[in-house]
Design brief:
Layout lengths: L1 H12 L2 H8 L6 H13 L13 H29 L5
Main location: mitochondrion
Subcellular location: Mitochondrion inner membrane
Protein name: Cytochrome c oxidase subunit 7A, mitochondrial
Length: 89
Amino acid sequence: MMNLSRAVVRSFATTTSRRSTAVGKEQIEKGYFEIRKVQEHFQKKDGKPVFLKGSAVDSVLYRVTMALALVGIGGMTKLFYDLSVPKTE
């Protein structure tokens, strides 16, 4: 029973780098390289924030969000003005 627990602890304690060198480069998944390509695209230093690097849809969603935020701020400003200035009849 003690040997089984040691084997389990050892399997969790072994680092992934040691495991990956044991496996070899020929068994690396194809998806790993696709993920690396996407990571390089988003980490490129081009001056854009990361939330705009995806596609044109990101830019449209950002602009719509900013427009709705400004409309909300304008509505709150109008509400505060209407509540603070007495109506004359």
